[in-house]
Write a structure and sequence with these properties.
By secondary structure, the chain is an alpha+beta fold. The protein has 2 domains: 8-162, 2-Layer Sandwich (Ribosomal Protein S5, domain 2), CATH 3.30.230; 170-287, 2-Layer Sandwich (Alpha-Beta Plaits). It contains 9 helices and 10 strands. The protein has helices at 72-84, 106-121, 128-138, 182-187, 199-208, 212-218, 224-230, 233-243, 265-275, and strands at 8-25, 31-51, 56-61, 89-95, 150-154, 159-162, 170-175, 248-251, 258-261, 282-287. Strand 5 and strand 6 form a beta hairpin.
């Protein structure tokens, strides 16, 4: 655009949940949780070109999402304009690689990346506390994506305590080719948690020690039983990962995606070949991130 800035690209990473404990339903309708968020190197990509017209235009590739005010990217840009009294606009291209409604936080990550990128590109200089406030209004796990790459989350997921990131773990993400909404998954929760007060701390310790066998014994996702009861393919994906050599497997967040981590990258490559026989599944090799994807962006 005339008088605008050249387009810039930004990675927007997926996340997995190492464990998910539900403490109960809050007065505001959300569930109180404890979980450990971990970013992956599986990323969507946002390409942003700013201009002085004040409009926000979003294009999605492939065209599988709405691009109007119902999209979190557009909502994030609008909220930032209002909070920062910004008169500039942006043309945004969103390239989707993270499966939708998959328990991987793709939409939340897109929203957080939009906040970080436009805060810089529009030269708003809004402080991290303000960005966190906006992020929490957009979604429970949006604040995590402002920083990362690893954090313990409480509240409804927006209260974050950074924890040391493990060295990159090599794994495979398996998605059955369909999505489930978080609200539906939480509605399937039985009301009884299998986790304890020490569960998340023990998970963090196992991650730090890179003890995947111990981690396998510690991971509990309170949403998993209810989701698996309706979608048994989730258990089948876990069993397939285990048969292919995964040392730990788990459903991420509200599902239905399943992640498995392996001893090394060679084991991952062998497992990808074995799993690729299931043509209806989406098979993606992944690594955990040990650093923020955009350390230059203030979050």
């Amino acid at each position: 655009m005339e008088d605008g800035q050249a387009a810039k690209g930004f990675a927007s990473p997926a996340k997995v949940n190492f464990g998910l404990r539900i403490l109960g339903k809050r007065a505001d309708g959300y569930h109180a949780i404890e979980t450990v968020f971990q970013m992956l190197d599986l990323c969507d990509r946002l390409t942003i070109e700013t201009h002085h017209e004040g409009t926000i235009r979003l294009v999605c590739h492939p065209p599988i999402l709405p691009t109007d005010e119902t999209n979190l990217v557009v909502q994030a840009a609008r909220m930032l304009q209002q909070m920062g009294n910004a008169h500039d606009g942006a043309n945004i291209v969103l390239e989707k690689h993270i499966p939708l409604a998959a328990g991987l936080g793709g939409g939340s990550s897109n929203a957080a990346t939009t906040l970080l990128a436009l805060n810089q590109l529009w030269k708003l200089h809004l402080p991290p506390a303000t960005l966190r406030q906006l992020a929490a209004q957009l979604g429970s796990d949006v604040p995590f994506f402002l920083n990362g790459p690893t954090a313990m989350a409480t509240g409804r997921g927006e209260i974050l305590s950074p924890v040391p990131s493990p060295p990159p773990l090599q794994g495979i993400l398996v998605n059955p080719g369909f999505g489930v909404t978080a609200s539906w998954a939480y509605g399937r929760f039985s009301g009884r948690s299998r986790a304890t007060d020490s569960s998340m701390v023990a998970i963090v310790q196992a991650l730090h020690a890179q003890d995947l066998s111990l981690l396998a014994n510690l991971l509990i996702n309170d949403l998993e039983p209810g989701v698996v009861a309706v979608h048994p393919v989730i258990r089948q994906m876990q069993e397939a990962l285990q048969a292919a050599g995964a040392l730990v497997t788990f459903m991420s967040g509200s599902g239905p995606s399943v992640c498995g981590f392996f001893a090394d990258s060679a084991s991952v490559q062998t497992a990808v070949v074995a799993l690729s026989r299931q043509q209806e599944w989406v098979i993606v090799p992944v690594s955990t991130l040990s650093h923020r994807p955009h350390p230059e962006l203030q979050g």
